[in-house]
Amino acid sequence: MLEVVIIGSGNVAQHLIQAFNKSNTVKVVQAFSRKRELLFPFLDSSLVINQYNQLITADLYIIAVSDTSIKEVAQKLNIQNKLVVHTSGSSDLSVITPHNRRGVFYPLQTFSLSRNVNFTEIPICIEAENNNDYQLLEQVGFTISDNVKRIDSQQRKSLHVAAVFVCNFVNHMYVVGQEICNENNVDFKLLQPLIQETASKILELSPSEAQTGPAKRNDTTTIASHLRFLTKKNQSLLYKTVTQSIIDYGKKL
Ligand SMILES: NC(=O)c1ccc[n+]([C@@H]2O[C@H](COP(=O)([O-])OP(=O)(O)OC[C@H]3O[C@@H](n4cnc5c(N)ncnc54)[C@H](OP(=O)(O)O)[C@@H]3O)[C@@H](O)[C@H]2O)c1
User: Fold this and answer.
1) Residue 47: closest CA among 81, 101, 9, 87
2) Residue whose CA is closest, atom 48 of ligand 1?
3) Which atom of ligand 1 is closest in space to residue 111's alpha carbon?
4) Is the CB of 88 under 6 A from ligand 1?
5) What is the distance in A from the centroid of ligand 1 to the CA of 199?
6) Relative to the CA of 14, which ligand 1 atom is closest?
7) Does residue 73 have its Cβ closer than 6 Å to ligand 1?
8) Whether the CB of 75 sits within 6 Å of ligand 1
9) pLDDT tens string for the chain (253 positions)?
10) Which end of the chain has a smaller Cβ tally under 10 Å, C or N?
11) How far apart are CA 81 and CA 65, in angstroms?
């Protein structure tokens, strides 16, 4: 049995613990949290610590804390020459102090506490400084996911930037779309089948093939009428910027 310690009790830590709890080959033997009680639904309270000097020996230590705190937390771990990884898409491997063996275990998904996820479908991007550690991370990854990939720091950064576009920005568009519906007294739910089909069709078509709308058609009359309709500055700015990007992209093809 591979023994894992999880540091953190946020979105990723909670989802990872729940995924490992289903495994027969990887066991979470301890977790660290400044708010221990957050992990009591998933782990026996005796396994949850809030003092670094209580850390026990394990095969792997996964730091799943906010990006800005990874370095500080890694420095506080009073362990030597152990395999320590973080779960961040944007942080370099070097944020982990070199008195331990370093790696990355980045699950490429958006996690929220209130949503269950199917870990088997989530790509896990791994990186390690030596081959033995890489193999251990691969083994741990495959116990919870069918999709484990070797991704170096540069590739991971590009995936993370792309993820901001395809997830965070797209979600912000939902926020703006809902705001426009609310302002005009129409039910945002009417757009749900459209939202679902937009996401589904790029499983079969390339994103450029799937692109539709006034900007794609360079329909200047509709674009001008939409811009007259939008009264909020942030809405018209977004509309203009994305419209221009779609038009410019079309010219390149
Ligand atoms: N959320 C996602 O969708 C997602 C997806 C893939 C990867 N990631 C990566 O996974 C990591 C964790 O993200 P998350 O979404 O789980 O974050 P989160 O929900 O905001 O939780 C952050 C955790 O970090 C702990 N923490 C922050 N500063 C700390 C410190 N100085 N000492 C000890 N603990 C500290 C927090 O503890 P307190 O509650 O005590 O403050 C909390 O448990 C990040 O590197 C993130 O980039 C996130």
Assistant:
1) 9
2) 12
3) 3
4) yes
5) 28
6) 16
7) yes
8) no
9) 999 999 999 999 999 999 999 999 999 999 999 999 999 999 999 999 999 999 999 999 999 999 999 999 999 999 999 999 999 999 999 999 999 999 999 999 999 998 999 999 999 999 999 999 999 999 999 999 999 999 999 999 999 999 999 999 999 999 999 999 999 999 999 999 999 999 999 999 999 999 999 999 999 999 999 999 998 999 999 999 999 999 998 887 6
10) C
11) 21
Q: Which residues contact 56 (CB under 8 A, 6 or more apart)?
A: 5, 29, 30
The reply to whether the predicted model has a pTM over 0.70 is yes
The first and second tokens of residue 76, run together, are 């506080």
Of all protein residues, whose CA lies closest to atom 23 belonging to ligand 1?
65
- The alpha carbon of 88 and the centre of ligand 1 are apart by a number of angstroms equal to 9
Calculate ∠ Cα 245-247-252, nearest 5°. 90
